[in-house]
Amino acid sequence: MSPTPASQTETQTRPRVEGEREQEILDATIDILAEVGYDRLTMDAVATRAKASKATLYRRWNGKAQLVIDALISEKEPMSAPDTGNLRDDLLGAFCGLGGLTDARQIAILGSVITAMARDEEFAEAFRRDFIGPKKELSSRMFARAQERGEIRKDFDLELIAAALPGICLHRTFLLGELPTAELVEKVIDQIILPAVANGCD
């Protein structure tokens, strides 16, 4: 009889953490992240909070970087790019409300990982790819549709303008200590984004 492949044996003896149990661990990770930040979060602390063993965590995640990324993703609402027929309403729909720039919990969690990105290359790479990447793609899609509709002049740098709204709001949050409001988002859209992209349109 041929030996069982090592990978198959590992799968049989180390079942995946999934379903409700996985979400309990992810929820515990988010709670600790919000309390102490990424740097002080440990796999031991998550295991204790979730009433799990470290071995259980390592069956699913190879370290805290990927665990935190999965926890952050689990917090997000299903992502979709609003398609209202005009850029202003698309931006308001995307950036206001749950999971957007006015979501205090999401902003607090984001603040807890900002410093880690400068010191933990593995985490920074995963965060940009798996958390920021999908958001950036949806934003780019909204601006591209607006350009196709003629709301944005053809020579405009879409990548540059797509970063303007979150950039301004997050600057005010983390440097000036002002949590973004729906009114601020609306002002940035009306006074900065729309005038900039419309300048010179036919």
TrEMBL record:
<dbReference type="InterPro" id="IPR036271">
    <property type="entry name" value="Tet_transcr_reg_TetR-rel_C_sf"/>
</dbReference>
<dbReference type="Pfam" id="PF00440">
    <property type="entry name" value="TetR_N"/>
</dbReference>
<dbReference type="GO" id="GO:0003700">
    <property type="term" value="F:DNA-binding transcription factor activity"/>
</dbReference>
<dbReference type="InterPro" id="IPR023772">
    <property type="entry name" value="DNA-bd_HTH_TetR-type_CS"/>
</dbReference>
<feature type="compositionally biased region" description="Polar residues">
    <location>
        <begin position="1"/>
        <end position="12"/>
    </location>
</feature>
<feature type="DNA-binding region" description="H-T-H motif">
    <location>
        <begin position="42"/>
        <end position="61"/>
    </location>
</feature>
<dbReference type="Pfam" id="PF16859">
    <property type="entry name" value="TetR_C_11"/>
</dbReference>
<dbReference type="InterPro" id="IPR011075">
    <property type="entry name" value="TetR_C"/>
</dbReference>
<dbReference type="GO" id="GO:0000976">
    <property type="term" value="F:transcription cis-regulatory region binding"/>
</dbReference>
<keyword id="KW-0805">Transcription regulation</keyword>
<keyword id="KW-0804">Transcription</keyword>
<dbReference type="InterPro" id="IPR009057">
    <property type="entry name" value="Homeodomain-like_sf"/>
</dbReference>
<dbReference type="InterPro" id="IPR001647">
    <property type="entry name" value="HTH_TetR"/>
</dbReference>
<keyword id="KW-0238">DNA-binding</keyword>
<dbReference type="InterPro" id="IPR050109">
    <property type="entry name" value="HTH-type_TetR-like_transc_reg"/>
</dbReference>
<feature type="domain" description="HTH tetR-type">
    <location>
        <begin position="19"/>
        <end position="79"/>
    </location>
</feature>
<feature type="region of interest" description="Disordered">
    <location>
        <begin position="1"/>
        <end position="20"/>
    </location>
</feature>
<protein>
    <submittedName>
        <fullName>TetR family transcriptional regulator</fullName>
    </submittedName>
</protein>
